[in-house]
Amino acid sequence: MSRRVVVVGNGMVGARLCDEVRRRDPDGRRVRLTVLGAEPRPAYNRVLLSTVLAGGLTPRAVELYPGGWAARRRIDLRLGVAAVKIDRSRRVVLADDGTEEPYDELVLATGSRAHVPAGPGFEHATAFRDLDDCAAILDRARPGTRFAVLGGGLLGCEAARGLAGRGTRVTLLHRGPHLMERQVDAGAGHVLAATLERLGVEVRTGVRALGWEPGAGLRLDGGELLDADALVVATGVRAETGLAHDAGIATDAGVLVDDRLATSDDRVHAVGDCAQHAGAVAGVVQPGWEQAAVLADLLTGTDPAARYRGTRTVTRLKARDVDLATVGDPALLDASSLRFSDPASGRYAALAFRDERVVAGAVLGLPDAAATVVQFFDGALPVAEGDRLALLLGRALPGAAETADPGRLPSSAVVCRCNTVTKGALITAWRAGATDPPALARATRATTGCGSCGDTVRGICSWLAQSDPIESDPPVLSAVREGAA
Ligand SMILES: Cc1cc2nc3c(=O)[nH]c(=O)nc-3n(C[C@H](O)[C@H](O)[C@H](O)COP(=O)(O)OP(=O)(O)OC[C@H]3O[C@@H](n4cnc5c(N)ncnc54)[C@H](O)[C@@H]3O)c2cc1C
């Protein structure tokens, strides 16, 4: 008998979980899947909303799966239907269309919602979380419109850059002492602000907004009224924990889960932005996708020993002409850290080491160095004291190759962070016949997350076409060579 699994949430992680389950159980013999999705549209790549806002992609282009995908995969997908209550004693989920969905296992993949600060008028501001928000912002984004973007974290910076690129007049306001203080140190924050200013964004830090006065502007601490026609709020997110909490399941900042992604009720699981694992709510997609793979192993019985042990996350800002990568906790950057700063050219790097390993860092405007640093952070590779400067310069070091040259990347290097795809996996897929970037994307999923690895994947593809001639020969020629050998 197949298990009835109900997934609540058809976002990036809920949809991915279904995909992972069907990769292991294509005919649905082991798992029957029902998905309740509050949004009225098929799953899309939320990470790419900043690119949609900046004009680099259409909303259609960010759909995660082709039309009819769910039906072909035997997934009962119910769009525009929200779960409103979990009745754990009867093991049913109640939906807002009046239906009840019985489950053997329930998965919460409810993501997070935008946090809107308290204050008069903020309820009329636009958040930046879904495609409807994106459409509402774009509706106002005509050249000359004055936008205030509240919140100088990753999303606020991306939104401000995208809007400035559309010819609007943008002021980015941040309450903290410098931009992105959760990810970068003060030095990187200041250079980032200068870079955004050069790109047409006015940046103001250390300011508090008290309220939004539609038609007038943004009221600031101290009484100033900032002229603005539209307000975008990007002041953080909160995990969507309401359903679990109301059902008596343990929650904190997220729904508490163990290494099996089980909540305090063994029949109920949580993955993605709504889950809190080992004290942390991730808020980025890579951990959620790794959790989905582990949970699919468990739900299908493919690997009953599968466990999620956490993810080493790397953050990248996705904005044209701003190249920022961060790793680890910025609190670890201190006076003993290695620093390079050239604000005039928008370049900055800070790296903290423990036991000869990179444990935290921010690299801005130095893409080669960023790639090398990420590689060393990922692999926990040792950097001898004398080699640290070379690391910042993006030069080849013992243990890793110069990353600007895809051919010299080690096989173990993670190329696509969102999907944890190594160069070795790309080579294997190439040799199995995926010999162009779209085919590599289909085979390995590389490039299908934030897309920032696109150049590297294309580089590896060209390198393979030149350096792997036997494998890329037409079959007849390969056979001739094998015969000759
Ligand atoms: C503009 C933007 C840029 C981002 N950039 C990056 C980035 O560069 N890198 C990165 O890693 N991450 C980024 N993120 C974060 C990333 O999008 C999230 O980590 C990811 O979407 C989490 O996936 P999820 O499925 O857990 O949640 P979501 O994608 O939010 O999906 C949750 C879904 O559940 C639905 N839902 C909620 N409650 C219910 C209910 N009761 N019943 C039915 N359905 C329900 C919601 O409507 C939603 O569709 C970005 C986010 C935004 C908004």
UniProtKB/TrEMBL annotation:
Reported cofactor(s): [4Fe-4S] cluster; siroheme
Pathway listed: Nitrogen metabolism; nitrate reduction (assimilation)
GO molecular function, one term: metal ion binding
Metal-binding as UniProt keyword: yes
Domain BFD-like [2Fe-2S]-binding: 414-460
Domain FAD/NAD(P)-binding positions: 4-282
A family per Pfam: Pyr_redox_2
The keyword Glycoprotein appears for this protein: no
Keyword entries, A-Z: Heme, Iron, Iron-sulfur, Metal-binding, Oxidoreductase
Family membership: Belongs to the nitrite and sulfite reductase 4Fe-4S domain family.
Protein name: NAD(P)/FAD-dependent oxidoreductase
Organism: Pseudonocardia broussonetiae
